[in-house]
Model the fold of this input.
Amino acid sequence: MFKIILSIAALLLSIVILQFANSVVAPTVVLNANSSGSSLGIVGMIPTVYGLGFVLGCFWARKLLMTIGHIRSFTFAAALLASLTLMMHLLQDAAVWTIFRGIMGCAIAIIMTCVDSWVGHVTPLEIRGRIMGFYSTITKLAYVGAPALLSYSAGFSDNAIIFCVLLFIISLIPVCLTKLPQPEIGPGVTTSFRKILHDAPSAFIAAFILGFTNSAVLNMMPVYGVEVGLIKSQALILLVAAHFGGLLLQWPSGFMSDILGRRKILIIGFSISACMSIAMTFPFAANQGNALIICFIWGGAALSLYSIALSHAIDHVSHNETVAVCATILTIWSIGSIFGPVVAGNLMQFSSAKALFLFCGGFHALVAAFIIMRVVLTAKRVRKEGTLPPEEMDNLVWPQNRPL
Done:
């Protein structure tokens, strides 16, 4: 495992620097738009357009990677991010910022598809969960560290945009110097939604529901906290607890998925998340201490599952299909993430704040039940036919029979 991490170290360094910069840009642009006197409608459109750009980028990424390769695609997208960020500093207009953030969403999707597929391609099956978990953990450090830096220094936030331009440029250096071989992409290789649903239905359903529910909870959790009686600062800490839980349990979840199988960990994770979601609807969750513990456990379960679902999908394809699968799974997740907050917000408006976690818990319980059904049906097929194609053997062998 250590040799694999060393081989992808330059790639991981690039993505951490880049994601840190993007995580600084996102709140800075929104805050600057708000302080400039722009309407809340325009301010709210900025993250929405970014999400739409991200979805479009997922659709375009595979073709771009197939045409010019991984290093050039990363370089193109990072240079685009640096250029647009500098232009946002020069053009003080919220409407222009909104358009630029949409294009930046597209660029980030290209970079994530590039890195996801690159890491997945060079990682052996038997340690893929651990490596993908490690990769997800260090990128989450960037997500958590950027807002912390902004909140720590008000003076820094004044120059944040220029600082991010510098980081976007610096992120190009490690990836351009890497000796890691680029994934081979077969001509005409595509992976449709239908193919993923057929070959790895558990990964398909998990990715969509994780985007659909987790984006809703993470966006609306502070609102939930205020509505149940917490003060604003306490409500924001719930979000920190959830992210911290996901950060700490990301790698252990990936490690256990290598031993027990991807679907077993997905079942456990969705089940725990469903239980914690339901717990948040009870009166004792109005106590800040109880709510923090529940949110920490919820985050540890719910926010660590995407990389496992992605690994499960990659396990089912050949090496030259890795890029297409990563792009498709990311697209599925991003589509869910666009609609989730809208649905949850309306449920909270017409019902109560607790509807947020009932919404999440219900869907996560359904996904756990679906994957259990898949495992049971596959086991019955084994008993009936005596054998299965290799792609369906995941989760049917116990740890002592798996290569370690």
Q: What stands out?
A: The chain has two domains: 1-176, 190-395. Residues 174 and 280 are 43 Å apart (CA to CA).
